[in-house]
Amino acid sequence: MKKILLLLLILLNGILLAQKGRIIGKVIDENNNPLIGANVVLLGTNWGAATNRRGEFEIKNIKAGVYSLKVSSIGYLDYLKRGLAVKGGATRLLIKLKEKTLEFDPVVVTASKYSQRLSDLPESVSLVDSKILSEKNFTSIDEALRYVPGVYLTEDQISIRGSSGYSRGAGSRVLTAIDGIPIYAGDTGEIIWQLIPINNVQKIEIIKGAGSSIYGSSSMGGVVNVITKKPVKRMITFVKTYVGFYGKPYYDQWDWSKQIRGFNGQAISSSNAFGNFGYSVSLTRDEDLSYRQNDWHKRLGGYLKLNYKLKNFGNLSFIGLAFRQKRGTFNFWKDSRNALVPPDKDEGQVVNSQRYLFAFKYSKQISKMFGLNVISSLLRSAWNDQSESGNNSSSNLYRTELQSVYASGKSLKIISGIELTQGQVKSNIFGNPASFGYGVYSQVEYHFNFPVILTAGARFDDERLDTLKALSAFSPKIGLVYKLKNSISFRANISRGFRAPTLAEAFTSTVTSGLVIKANPQLKPESNYSFEFGMSKRFGRLLELNLALFQNEFKDLIEPQVDVTDGKIFFNNVTRARIQGFELVSKFRYSPLHLSATLGYTYLWARDVNKQRALKYRPRHLAYFSVTFSPSYFNFGVDFRFMSRFEEIDRELIDLGLVKDGELRGKALILDLRAGASLYQFNIPANIYFNVKNALNYNYIQMVGNVAPIRNISVNLEFLF
Amino acid sequence: MKVKKIIAFALLLIVAVSCDHGIAPLPLVKVEPGFSGTIKFLGTWPAGVVQTHVVLFKNPLRDSTDFNVTNIKYISESIPFGVKEYSYSTKSSGAAISNVTPGDYGYLAVAQSKKALSLNRKDWFIVGVFVPNGDSTKAGKFTLPENTFLKNVDIICDFDHPPVQPPGGKAAK
User: Does the CA dihedral A495-A496-A499-A500 come out positive or negative?
Assistant: First the structure.
């Protein structure tokens, strides 16, 4: 009897198994190349997979039935197959994804802290795709931003449409965030670019214009938000290694080392999602001997992202970032004949720094209409140098933000939030000040019955910086979008921005490179009104034109200046300034010839209204041109950047004799060449990229007494398993 | 084909405009060493002052004997009585003494006297001292680098808050 029962069970099991099927398939692009990491899901189920290095996938143990199968991959149009019948045995599929001709209306998340179509935004937005980060072998995000129309960097200080000059690392008028979490140091307020894990970036969103109505202080010039990749359902391991060298300086007398100056780096990362859990982890190492003496650096970075989907309880994420750097110091050149050598007293100076970010994010969709997010983070920064004062500083910056998003159909969205920040500094140059602040904001987006979208909101901030007078700021915003046709739309936006002084600007007291810097406890916040009128026009799927006219009115601009009564440098509210201009950006893609191109031009008229002269470190003309040719397994590209001569620089440093030949400056003309190949054609899961940056070896300065990188050549190899 | 031609033309244009290679080292020109700046006078001028000069001493003023003509390397023209601001330069032809060479100097200051012709330390009162880069620990010290003409070597003379007097002089009146 037992034997009969056992036989029946085996038979029953066989029947049940026979009712389960599997889907085996391959995902390819239009050139029949396999697509790695494409997500394949059966809609309405938990069954899914990601493609391997051969573009293949397999979904097992699928209950017999009829399903809808969706395949998605970054840069390609989604593929949807309805009515897919799965029976016992294998169902085989070959899926060809079409490349997005030009993503004219992508989804962005930065402008309002929730997902929106780009065409619904009343301000200008630029996007940088992760693909270009590999193709151009960028080792830090700030390098990539130099190729965004209307954006330039003075050393590592970002300026969007002329919002910033150069304040020696103290404060920034552009807020930079990773997945919406700001990454500026609690003491200096500087952006810590190297903290961002460049190999885990999905895209970068750049908002051009004051963002204080949502983000508060430090976003009066715009917002840069780096979106990281999400873990996918198949384990992906990424390994990158690169090596390069600087060419010989154009002038023999600049060739101080008579040796090849190299740079190299390695990165390894892994990502996977299974069940309700997902992770991404990466480690990076970079070393650069630099083309300048005592300008070398060594960096180590780590990144960990964990996602956990709590059943009926929302999503929980953790982001951990760590970064350690040791670098030489190069403040200014010795003189123009020794442009790649620092003054004798700076030789051998070293700065050590460690930065850490820990953040938790909790999201819960409470109802169909109402969602809740809580973000809490700690950014720890510590550094020391070997200057005559032995400067050192450590800071902790705590942030907690509570957001609620209410959506009623497609016509109304309201986001509201409250943000608390607390900072503590321990330093021999800033003292031991503390800061505390809070901000409350709300913004409404309303889509009318006619083709107009209204965005209106405001934020109130209250900040206390140690002994400084408590400051408060009200930052309203109103924007309109009018979609005349599908292919043409107009936008207008006016908003107020502000920036509270950083602890470094208010309390720095030190001697560095012969400069004596003193504190200014009377410092007030700076503010601006930002206005933009823009128009977008599409010409089929080939071409998009985007035009923006903008004006920024700054009040109480914080700038470093010399106190005539004692010769010391201090930060002060000195300037009323006006920046007017226009920007034209066009994107072109012609698939039959595998050609794509971007052209951007920005005109800036940046004036100090009080002194009736140009603002420091603002070029009048900025232009960018890029063309890419991608036949089959290859890609070739040319990038060209032009920046006109700075009309004004730090004259004080020249007059005081600190920077010899400091008046020497000119336009910048930078030509980069690149070529890449996919090695999948040889069954090797790798891509290889060659880059020649500043191919014409054009010499220009980024700031007084600082020659920008000379010609450098690199090769990077990326494996994806 | 038209697109290719446009791109080729653009690339040629880029190469053409980039031919100058940007900034170049400046030739080493022999600059006549010297310095210039502005003297700011705060408060009310003392009555009876007949001479006001910018003075530069090679060695620091340790006692009254250092206040001698061999130690003095520069004496500006006399600054008019009562001015609020005065620009001076070692290039000025009116300088009483101008023997400035590159190197370190012990004391750069603005001195006043109520006597017309005197090099007696006791007849002079220091009303302002040069403070290099705002560092008060180095007050009076001055360095003139090789091949350099320094600008903005400014001195503040606050009559209500006179600087510490070097040895050998009289107390403030």
Answer: negative
Q: Which two tokens stand for residue A396?
A: 């902790």
Higher pLDDT, A33 or B165: B165
CA–CA gap between residue A538 and residue A191 (Å, rounded): 35
In this prediction, residue A709 carries a pLDDT of 96
Is A641:B22 a contact under the CB 8 Å cutoff?
A: no
Q: Domains in chain A, start-ordered, CATH in brackets?
A: 2-96 (2.60.40.1120), 222-720 (2.40.170.20)
The tokens of B144 are what?
A: 């003139």
CB A122 within 8 A of CB A455: yes
Report whether A393 contacts A509 (CB < 8 A): no
Report which residue type is found at A97.
L
| B41: nearest CA partner in chain A | A565
Decide: B55 and B122 in contact? Cβ < 8 Å.
Answer: no
Q: Are A158 and A142 in contact (CB under 8 A)?
A: yes
This model of the complex carries an ipTM of 0.76
Q: Pairing state of beta strands A107-108 and A116-117?
A: antiparallel
Which residue matches tokens 């952006």? Answer: A191
Q: Which two tokens stand for residue A82?
A: 């309805």
The three-class DSSP label of residue A200 is: helix
Could you tell me the CATH number of the domain that includes residue B95?
A: 2.60.40
The pLDDT-based confidence of A442 (bands split at 50, 70, 90) is: very high
Residue A628 CA to residue A147 CA, distance in Å, equals 14
Q: In chain B, what's the furthest Cα-to-Cα distance?
A: 90
Alpha carbon distance A316, A372 (integer Å): 12
* Dist. CA A692–CA A580, nearest whole Å: 35
Q: Which residues contact B41 (CB under 8 A, 6 or more apart)?
A: B83, B84, B85, B86, B127, B157, B159
Residue A204: half-sphere exposure toward Cβ, Cα within 13 Å:
28
Per residue in A102-140, pLDDT tens? 556 788 888 888 889 988 999 999 999 988 999 999 999
Task: Give the list of residues 6+ apart from residue A103 with CB closer than 8 angstroms, or none.
Answer: none
Alpha-carbon torsion angle A12, A13, A16, A21, nearest 10: -150
Nearest CA in chain A to B2: A593
From the list A565, A640, A656, which residue is nearest B133 (CB)?
A656
Classify residue B8: in a domain, yes or no: no
Q: Which domain does B105 fall in, by range? A: 31-158
Mean pLDDT of chain B: 84
Query: What's the structural domain count of chain B?
Result: 1
Q: Which of A288, A235, A274, A264 is nearest to A51 (CA)?
A: A235
Q: Kindly report the three-state secondary structure assignment for every residue of A637-682.
A: EEEEEEECCCCECCHHHHHCCCCCCCCCCCCEEEEEEEEEEEHHHH
The two most distant CA atoms of chain A are separated, in Å, by: 108
**B121 found inside a domain:** yes
CA of A27 to nearest chain B CA: how many angstroms apart? 32
Is B18 part of a structural domain of the chain?
no
Q: How far apart are CA B87 and CA A315, in angstroms?
A: 69
Which of B11, B18, B149, B160 is most worth mutating to test chain A (most A CB atoms within 10 A of its CB)? B18
Which member of B18, B40, B156 has the closest CB to residue A696?
B18
User: Going by C-beta distance under 8 Å and a sequence separation of 6 or more, which residues neighbour residue A651?
Assistant: none
Contact status, residue A251 vs residue A494, Cβ threshold 8 Å: no
Overall average pLDDT of the A462-471 stretch: 84
Does the residue B94 lie in any domain? yes
Cβ-based contacts under 8 A for chains A and B: 95
Residues of B in contact with A701 (CB under 8 A): 23
Q: Tell me the C-alpha distance between A230 and A704, whole Å.
A: 41
Is residue A127 helix, strand or coil? strand
CA–CA dist A186, A424 (Å, integer): 7
Residue A16, pLDDT score:
46
